[in-house]
Specification:
There is one protein chain. With 111 residues, the protein is an alpha+beta fold. The chain has a single domain, classed as Nuclear Transport Factor 2, Chain: A (Roll), CATH 3.10.450. Helix content is 22%, strand content 25%. The protein contains two helices and six strands. It has a two-stranded antiparallel ribbon with strand order 1-4. A two-stranded antiparallel sheet has the order 2-3. The chain has a two-stranded antiparallel ribbon with strand order 5-6. Strand 5 and strand 6 form a beta hairpin. The longest helix is centred in the first third of the chain and has 13 residues.
Amino acid sequence: MADIDCPHFDLPFRLGKAGANVVEQDSIEDVSNCVVAILSTHPGWRDEAPTFGTVDFAMRKMPLGAEDIATYVGSQEPRAIVVVDEHRDALDFLVARVNVGVSIYQKKGDQ
């Protein structure tokens, strides 16, 4: 494992023999963890950031709105390039499959 200059906790949070698992700040792993945190948190759940997160998409009419999901994430995580794809399940038309792809902008000097 490479040396980590600026560690951020990895998701899911785990403790190992060397302590908490961490990832490098601004890495694809760090940005992806932030996107997962946004999608897993509903507004009002965090007292210190009451507007953080996305609305609960469970039990909503389809389509859920892939553009809305991308907008929620993009407004809260500017480091992420988010692509959201939504389609109905092939076997159960009441199930919506939502795939979220995350990439990051390349920093100058990183080749």
